[in-house]
Specification:
It is a single chain. By secondary structure, this protein is α/β, with parallel strands linked by helices. The protein has a domain of 96 residues. Strands 1, 2, 3, 4, 5, 19, 20, 21 and 22 form a nine-stranded mixed beta sheet that branches. The radius of gyration is 24 Å and the shape is globular.
Length: 525
């Protein structure tokens, strides 16, 4: 009896907290009734009603049978039997070209995503102020925030040169960072694996992060190596953490993984290292996509960094030098092995007649070895091959996924990998419903409120009075990812409604054509 009373008391107090300060308006633009509401926090779900006026939530309270009689709404959605949660926030993607070309960003809306954050892995549109202005001028389907890329800043000052920055060049980069932050950037991303970031020394990055930190920014990083090359995975994670510690800024590890056969089964070591810094008081998070294959350009994936110094044109010139070409070809087999071998490397696009083949198939068609096929494809000025390489294993993937500091992300660019159309559906179907690696409430938390808190997105990521009405409604068992490596453009299904800033963007799995997204600018502290 005492146990029953205590449970009842808990539920009563929960409902009181849930409805505290709520007053049902007499009229509303949108009323969502009777859904199982996960509000983006760690609170348990509650069957509740939600009222929206304009682009804001004005009422969230336990469901009442007579709600439709007490509030006259222009639109009412009966969410009985459905999950109602904040729209998903993708903390890591590469959608700049998509957003400028296909402003709806439909593949993201169709999998429940209402906010995207590009400018990752060291690369971004520059200047960010012009990028934001263009998005606002043309209209967008999802909300958009953005980071500024360290590689992009470096290129403005130094080009692609393979050398350390001088003190004067660092000062020029700091000036650009300050302007980007004033224009609304969330912070700096690094791609220390890519040219030209791979040529920078740690102290350069620390100085830029200190400057960014003065303005309240966040540091997110594609670490120097996710594989065994250069300083290796664990040391690359340590470098990122030491940069954050020295600069006094929060650190996010982008698309956390153990890349390549030599680094498999090191998730425990990485997790222990990150947690040791968290125990020192550092804010450290990570994001992760749920696929075993990465998406990457052929040059970045399958050639040594030194041969890409100066960009594609310089790389092709090195191919013409017999000594340098011999050195490049000698290093490629080890890289191929780490990325799963020619039989599993899939050429997804931009390779002409060799697109949608494995590298082994393309090499056989050329009557060449895989190494010679790579050189030929990269030498062709009409081609820019993009790959899906199977570089991870499920044990590491699920260990990272279970960590409370890891968030969901796509790392997506539309048309080259299924993650840009399938990630959130894949997480729900494979890892919530079928494999039960994540509980539904944990999945929602890591995909909504946790992201908003990490990146300082005000009044986003939660279903609370005063928050923007970014809302996703679905039944987990009905969600299906359709995108595949062979056809990465197929939209997910199973999301009944997706609402962006109070406007219904997806209704019964159909995009409505609305462009109600907003640019979300960081406010300098």
């Amino acid at each position: 009896m005492k146990k029953f009373v205590s449970v009842a008391a808990f539920l009563t107090s929960l409902l009181l907290v849930f409805s505290c300060g709520q007053r049902l308006p007499k009229t509303a633009d949108l009323l969502i009734t009777g859904g199982t509401v996960y509000d983006g926090s760690e609170k348990s779900p509650v069957k509740a009603d939600i009222a929206v006026v304009g682009n804001k939530i004005v009422y969230v309270a336990p469901a009442k049978a007579d709600i439709v009689n007490r509030c006259a709404a222009k639109r009412t959605i009966n969410a009985e039997g459905y999950v109602v949660c904040p729209g998903f926030i993708d903390p890591h993607d590469h959608l700049e070209p998509t957003l400028l070309k296909d402003r709806a960003n439909e593949s993201y809306l169709r999998m429940g995503v209402t906010t995207v954050i590009p400018g990752m892995c060291g690369g971004s549109r520059y200047p960010i102020g012009d990028f934001f202005a263009k998005l606002e001028e043309q209209g967008i389907g999802t909300n958009v925030a953005s980071f500024t890329g360290h590689n992009t800043i470096r290129e403005q000052v130094m080009g692609d040169e393979a050398r350390y920055a001088t003190p004067e060049e660092v000062e020029k980069m700091k000036e650009l960072v300050r302007q980007e932050m004033r224009d609304g950037s969330l912070g700096l991303s690094t791609g220390l694996f890519y040219v030209p970031g791979c040529f920078s020394e740690t102290s350069e990055v620390v100085e830029l992060m200190k400057e960014m930190g003065k303005m309240g920014g966040m540091y997110t990083t594609h670490v120097r190596n996710e594989n065994k090359f250069n300083i290796g995975l664990v040391n690359s994670i340590r470098e990122a953490l030491e940069i954050g510690k020295a600069a006094g800024v929060p650190v996010n590890i982008s698309h956390i993984k153990c890349l390549g056969r030599s680094e498999w089964y090191k998730a425990d070591s990485v997790i222990s290292l990150i947690e040791s810094y968290q125990q020192q008081g550092m804010k450290v998070t990570a994001d992760q996509y749920p696929y075993l294959a990465s998406g990457i350009g052929m040059a970045s994936a399958l050639t040594p960094a030194w041969c890409r110094d100066g960009g594609t044109k310089a790389m092709r010139e090195r191919f013409k030098d017999p000594e340098l070409l011999a050195r490049i070809k000698a290093e490629i087999p080890d890289i191929l092995y780490e990325r799963g071998g020619a039989e599993t490397i899939y050429i997804s696009k931009n390779a002409g007649e060799y697109s949608q083949m494995t590298l082994a198939e393309a090499a056989a068609k050329m009557k060449k070895s895989p190494v010679d096929a790579i050189i030929e494809l990269l030498s062709d000025k009409t081609k820019s091959p993009y790959l899906n390489t199977f570089i991870a294993n499920e044990e590491d993937l699920t260990k990272y996924m279970k960590q409370p500091w890891v968030m969901s992300c796509t790392d997506g660019s539309f048309g080259s990998h299924p993650r840009a159309a399938g990630t959130y559906a894949e997480l729900i179907k494979q890892f919530v419903v079928e494999k039960r690696v994540l509980t539904l409430d944990r999945f929602i938390r890591r995909s909504t409120g946790q992201v908003a808190e990490t990146y300082g997105l005000k009044n986003r990521g939660f279903l609370r009075k005063g928050c923007f009405a970014d809302i996703t409604i679905f039944k987990p068992e009905e969600v299906v990812p359709h995108a595949s490596y062979a056809d990465p453009t197929l939209f997910a299904t199973g999301f009944k409604n997706v609402i962006v800033n109070g406007e219904i963007a997806v209704e019964n799995d159909v995009y409505t054509g609305t462009l109600s997204g907003m640019v979300l600018r960081h406010e300098v502290k």
